[in-house]
Known about the structure:
By secondary structure, the chain is an alpha/beta fold. It has helices at about 45-65, 70-80, 95-100, 150-160, 185-195, 205-220, 220-225, 245-255, 275-300, 325-340, 360-375, 395-410, 420, 425-430, 440-445, 460-465, 475-485, 495-510; strands at about 35, 65-70, 85, 90, 105-110, 120, 125-130, 135-140, 145, 200, 230-235, 240-245, 260-270, 305-315, 320, 345, 380, 385, 390-395.
Amino acid sequence: MDVAEAEVPATNAPPRRERGKRRDPSAKPTGVPYIVRNIPPYDILGEEGLVRVEKTAERILAEIGIEFRDDPEVISHWKRAGAKVDGLLVKFEPGMLQEILSSAPSTFTQYARNPANNIEIGGKNVVFAPAYGSPFVSDLDKGRRYGTIEDFQNLIKLAQSSPWLHHSGGTICEPVDLPVNKRHLDMVYSHIKYSDRCFMGSVTAENRAEESIDLARILFGRDFVDKNCVILGNVNVNSPLVWDGTMTKSLRAYARANQAAVIVPFILGGAMGPVTNAGAIAQSYAETLAGCALTQLERKGAPVIFGNFLSSMSLRSGSPTFGTPEPAIGSMVIGQLARRLKLPLRCAGNFSNSKLPDAQAMQEGVMSMLSAVHCGANFILHSAGFIDGLLTMSYEKFVMDTDFCGALHSYFKGVPFDDNALAMDAFQEVGPGSHFLGSQHTLRNYQTAFWDSELSDNEPFEKWSDEGGSTDMATRANRKWKKVLGEYEAPPLDVAVDEELRDYIDRKKTAAADAWH
């Protein structure tokens, strides 16, 4: 099966949109709900190396342990499961967490309000989602500034309009113009209103996670949500070796509702973990294993995604660095470990420390994004927009990255070797010394033979200079995102459902005073 053959699950029967090549420059490409990879992940460690990493992680869990703070129910869970508990410190016998995790599904469906956009997470499936969590946004016109709900909605619209993304994401930027204790309601509603793809909810407090799930219940129906995954929650370990109550309460809220938690340690080598790659990998494996197992103690069989975010830092200045080679190659090992656990994987993404949508941004982004591709990641958060070490969401970088995601759709196809691909009939028609441009084989295949960027300039220098205004890609991307927003049309949403959503939000907002921190 290749990229173009990802199928909507049979439980929701509308025909899947087929990817088609553009017949003319003005026609819009169409996408697929997710990618089914036709290239294998890259295994860089042999059995001995993998066992050493796993054994080191088991020693960390058994000898050092992990603290679970401010959530007594988690401590009770671990006591009942047979872990060694000393106050907040929990230690685990080798193999214990893997056994608990045996009930977690290796693949699951996340349902969208448009069934044609349902996604499969796990196995050979790959889902691209936008970057997540930036407090700032930037564009070439206004520069860097705090994000607003208007920016949040604009970025959802850009994601919805791209055929190369598959997921609406979550905190696509932080809308700091809204109260901290209420903005999650507007954020989830914006995903529902302006996109018909899958989305993520809030994790910054237990009640915000629960209210995110409540909005999903209004959209899909309570019974359906109890049996099916419709929303994801991305939770982070407080590395090194600490799970705080804010995260575990949100994690448990999603698992309790049978919704998927994405379990992610964020390790800056030299700060929250060792500077050596192998040590950071062992630490992250231990931390993620504990978080994933906790979901199964809350609700056996709940979907969960094994996540990872390895990063490095400048040991001269202490500044975080992104898109560097060591975390990229470390992601390959993470992929192998996740496959041994038979869990879906979130790993790596399009990372950059550049402050602009420039050459540095794309160099670092390609390094880290290809590590996500080759490590076997199933859910690739941060696929578009990430600059400034995740502090800023760039409008221009967003559309540059989605264009690159388009190229990756073709990359994931691999190299077919059927009769058409081997082109023997073309050789017979053309013979020695002629050209293939007008051959029947070329005419049959020209629309789908090569991926066609919407942003790259492939014209001769003179045409680029005289007619194109000598523009660089960032300038073309600036024009592109404005054009996309100008042409955006919201997907239809049932009026009664919309009213119920807004009524729920109004009641929740009225019940509490605004809080800004």
